Amino acid sequence: MTALRLGTRGSALALAQANEVARLIGGDVELVKITTAGDVDRARGDKSRWVGALESALLDGSIDLAVHSAKDVPGELAPGTVIAATPRRAEPFDVLVGENALASVREGARVGTSALRRRAQLLAARPDLEVCEIRGNVDTRLAKRAGGEVDVLVLAAAGLDRLGRRGEAGALLHDGVFIPAAGQGVIAIQARAGSPAASEAARADHASTHAALDAERHVVRALEANCHTPVGVLASGGVVRGFVGLPDGSWWLAEEATSAEELADALLRAGAIELLRALAP
């Protein structure tokens, strides 16, 4: 029997996610490492740079399935493909590394992140902080903090969990403005629509996680948001929460509703899309 070819980036975190997917699917699975444009040039943030090469390999038949961090997947998939499955969601929230709680971070501390959403939320909550751009994979960012480039990091808790490094983190950021990126903590398995591999992938699906991801992606598409826009969306426990703000923290809004449609409408009425369009590069 031919092995199911599972495409993945080659980072430690991506491989941890791909191995988890392989375990859940079972059977004969081969991991195929693919270098994306985002791996080559981290200074540019377009989400398609992280998934484009994997989508191309999927479409040309080089792989049967592509494994992504769902938060990196653009709102519109490549034509002819679907998110065939999403395993059970890991912790969706961000976490501090280098301090136990945000209130304990000293005034004027250097906080490292490359995400505009995290920058906007940090400065909305603590305008005294110096938010510094810091790039690289999880291990690289942790090494940069250890080397004194920043005092504190903000990272996704799920990534630290999957790498077995959660013990280095402090408190979760989950109150008020701290709403994670859509799909954070979710692994998305992409397939060609109607392919046998899509059916194979379904063995790894967790229905409520998939429904939550669909809701969060609906809001992102309604807001015409992308990785250049400070937007957070989380669907959990029958409630969908959303955040939109300026990168300097000077203006922001947070709403919640019982459906993705209601949340998107509330954010649009509050002027979110005009703000996001103004921020677009």
Automatic annotation (TrEMBL):
Family note: Belongs to the HMBS family.
EC class: transferase
Q: What does this protein do?
A: Tetrapolymerization of the monopyrrole PBG into the hydroxymethylbilane pre-uroporphyrinogen in several discrete steps.
InterPro entries annotated for this entry? HemC (IPR000860), Porphobilin_deaminase_cofac_BS (IPR022419), Porphobilin_deaminase_N (IPR022417), Porphobilinogen_deaminase_C_sf (IPR036803)
List each copy of the Porphobilinogen deaminase N-terminal domain by range. Answer: 4-196
- GO MF, one annotated term: hydroxymethylbilane synthase activity
EC number per UniProt: 2.5.1.61
**Cofactor(s) required, per the database record:** dipyrromethane
What is known about its subunit structure?
A: Monomer.
Top-rank taxon: Bacteria
This entry carries the following GO cellular component terms, namely: cytoplasm
Reaction(s) this enzyme catalyzes, per UniProt: 4 porphobilinogen + H2O = hydroxymethylbilane + 4 NH4(+)
**Which PANTHER family has this protein been placed in?**
PORPHOBILINOGEN DEAMINASE
Q: Which Gene3D superfamilies match?
A: Periplasmic binding protein-like II (3.40.190.10), Porphobilinogen deaminase, C-terminal domain (3.30.160.40)
Query: Per the UniProt entry, what is one GO biological process?
Result: heme biosynthetic process
Q: Which protein are we looking at? A: Hydroxymethylbilane synthase
NCBIfam families in UniProt = hemC
Q: Which UniProt keywords apply?
A: Porphyrin biosynthesis, Transferase
